[in-house]
């Protein structure tokens, strides 16, 4: 019994350490959504964004060939194909890092979400904000059509 006790302690300690390495990346399209028709987008900057995530999303979409503008939550400019909203969650672990990013692509007339993407990376698997935006946008644009 004395030989087995240290093994149980080691297994218990190892199981406690695995909770810190979590990551998730998902994307979903609403049925009937075809993002290939999207040419122009408006990224809605939320008032609590102090990290210019709206500009990162704008830059990423522009690199994919889209015409993108960004601004406050006002009526979306006429002729815009989609409105893009986001929720960014930040965490402190020695330094501030983006824990989670959710991007919603919405119909500008109804505000209904037609596509959603999410990325979650905890401290051990953290990515830069640019990499998180890239991951979410790439997954949304590559999501299978329903």
UniProtKB/TrEMBL annotation:
Keywords per UniProt: Signal
Superkingdom in the source lineage: Bacteria
Signal peptide range in chain numbering: 1-21
UniProt-recorded name of the protein: DUF4136 domain-containing protein
Higher taxonomy: Bacteria, Pseudomonadati, Pseudomonadota, Betaproteobacteria, Burkholderiales
């Amino acid at each position: 019994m004395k030989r087995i006790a240290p093994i149980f302690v080691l297994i218990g300690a190892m199981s406690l350490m695995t909770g810190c390495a979590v990551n998730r990346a998902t994307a979903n399209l609403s049925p009937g959504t075809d993002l290939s028709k999207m040419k122009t987008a408006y990224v809605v900057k939320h008032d609590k964004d102090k990290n210019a995530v709206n500009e990162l999303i704008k830059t990423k979409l522009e690199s994919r060939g889209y015409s993108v503008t960004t601004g406050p939550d006002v009526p979306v400019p006429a002729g815009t194909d989609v409105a893009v909203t986001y929720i960014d969650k930040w965490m402190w672990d020695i330094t501030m890092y983006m824990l989670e990013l959710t991007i919603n692509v919405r119909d500008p007339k109804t505000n209904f979400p037609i596509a959603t993407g999410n990325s979650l990376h905890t401290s051990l698997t953290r990515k830069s904000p640019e990499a998180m935006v890239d991951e979410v946008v790439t997954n949304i644009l590559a999501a299978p059509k329903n």
